[in-house]
Design goal:
The chain is mostly helical. The chain contains 20 helices and 6 strands. The longest helix is centred in the last third of the chain and has 43 residues. It binds arginine (ARG).
């Protein structure tokens, strides 16, 4: 059915996410109006009683007909319905839907960013636990999706821990930029009423007020920053999802996915499809789409408030919700996946993955410049491939032959050094520069990661306490004014 004009512009459906924030803002505003003598204590009492009953009764108390346009009108109408227009009609003094909606989005987003950070921390812990179980699990490392050098499954998973820890920092940065209060900006040019913007900001637990009233009502860069953080999280997650799909394929066969995270085919009885990983990959596209949508909407939008801004909010919630859901499911998949250790080791020994280490060994033990060592090992491998031989079948004689061809003389190297260089376990054991897969380096990474997780958890707890504390204080303050 064709929408009416008021249905077309109504945001009521999407405003559900900001219902409580809008009521809280009205409560804080009414308290401030009374404190500044803009309304009387009696008037504040009646208004606050109505708002508190709405807060406790919930959304179902509101009449959400589309002619009301949005939740801001619906809340005001509720108060007027409860206590009459003579007093209820004073609630909207010195505020506008423009400053109110921006403030409400920020309040709701603040909460969601904390939830997102908590979920990211759970994901990092799941990766860390799986990594710790596999610090010795040797696997092939790839560049260009070709076997490059051996590494461990633990090291590979810790790469994602590093990426998601940066995501956590991005979410924290988004939180800090979101934590400033637009209230009191009114339509965009403030007001001549003697309001106290700082007081309202404090009552709502914001860290500060927005400095410029025009910017406060018309900016949504805080929102696209969060959408950006969500999109980057999803891009990182999609890379992991893609790898899990690859690893679980018959061709790679490096990882077993638990049955509940795979689905079968309606026609091919043998199939075990990595559908959860595929969906996470797809949800990344959605988060990127939302981000592109938000940026497109803001681009070239004149100051100050334009109704275009309303259309951005559901994209924001969609990005956060889909990211949360993806993180939750992927956390379980990460915990449940099982590396096929024997096959991982066998694959790590394929593709001449020890070539780099052998060249390094030539530098260390035969005194050659690296570039020459690289050429000699390259030649040796060409000869092996021509002779249809694997890395395991290489001999010191092959290396000497290659060196005669490449540098015109035979290198000297001990048989034991040669064998050591060919051994993938030894290769891993010797990689102990900061961040590498060797045991000492991994120990250091694990310690650093755990420390970082702790620091973020502490910050998260402090922020949560502040948010919950300010909500409780606000309600108490309001109750204290109801006679
Ligand atoms: N529903 C609007 C939004 O979500 C609230 C502000 C509307 N302001 C206005 N002047 N029409 O952005």
């Amino acid at each position: 059915m064709e929408p009416t004009a008021s249905e077309y512009i109504s945001s009521l459906k999407d405003d559900v996410a900001i219902f409580y924030p809008v009521v809280q803002i009205n409560i804080a505003h009414a308290i401030m109006l009374a404190e500044r003598g803009i309304i009387s204590a009696d008037e504040a009492s009646a208004i606050l009683r109505a708002l508190l009953s709405l807060y406790r009764g919930g959304l179902s108390k509101l009449d959400l007909r589309p002619e009301l346009e949005d939740i801001h009108m619906a809340v005001e109408e509720f108060v007027i319905r409860e206590i009459g227009e003579d007093i209820g009609g004073k609630l909207h003094t010195a505020k506008s839907r423009n400053d109110q909606v921006s403030t409400a989005i920020k309040l709701a987003l603040r909460q969601k960013l904390l939830d997102l950070e908590e979920q990211l921390l759970k994901l990092v812990k799941a990766l860390l636990a799986q990594a710790e179980r596999n610090v010795d699990t040797i696997m092939p490392g790839y560049t260009h999706l070709q076997i490059a050098e051996p590494t461990t499954f633990g090291h590979h998973l810790l790469a994602y821990c590093s990426a998601f820890l940066r995501d956590i920092e991005r979410v924290e940065q988004a939180y800090e930029l979101t934590n400033s209060c637009p209230m009191g900006s009114c339509a965009f040019a403030g007001t001549s009423f003697p309001i106290d913007r700082v007081r309202v900001a404090r009552l709502l637990g914001f860290g500060r007020v927005d400095e410029n009233t025009m910017d406060a009502v018309s900016s949504r860069d805080f929102a696209v920053q969060s959408m950006g953080a969500a999109a980057i999280i999803m891009v990182n997650l999609s890379r992991l999802a893609e790898e899990i799909s690859i690893w679980s394929s018959v061709e790679f066969s490096l990882v077993e996915i638990p049955d509940e995270f795979a689905s079968t085919s309606s026609i091919m009885p043998q199939k075990k499809n990595p559908v959860i990983a595929e969906m996470a990959r797809a949800k990344a596209a959605r988060a990127i789409g939302n981000l592109a949508g938000g940026l497109s909407l803001l681009k070239a939008l004149p100051q100050a408030y334009n109704l275009d801004l309303q259309e951005l909010t559901p994209m924001l919630w969609d990005s956060i919700e889909e990211t949360m859901n993806s993180l939750k499911v992927m956390e379980k998949l990460i915990t449940g996946m099982k590396p096929k250790k024997d096959l991982m080791l066998a694959r790590a020994e394929r593709g001449f993955s020890i070539a780099t280490e052998l060249a390094a060994s030539l530098v260390k033990h035969a005194g050659l410049p690296f570039r020459k060592a690289h050429s000699i090992v390259g030649r040796m491998i060409s000869l092996a491939i021509e002779g249809n031989r694997t890395a395991k079948e290489l001999t010191l004689e092959d290396l000497k032959k290659a060196s005669r061809e490449v540098i015109g003389r035979e290198i000297t190297m001990e048989q034991s050094e040669f064998e050591k260089a060919l051994d993938v376990e030894n290769c891993i054991a010797s990689r102990n520069v900061i961040g590498a897969p060797g045991p000492k380096a991994i120990k250091r990474q694990l310690t650093a990661l755990k420390q970082k997780i702790k620091t973020h958890q502490q910050l998260l707890r402090a922020w949560r306490r502040a948010v919950v504390g300010s909500e409780e204080k606000l309600l108490k303050e309001a109750e204290g004014r109801v006679q």
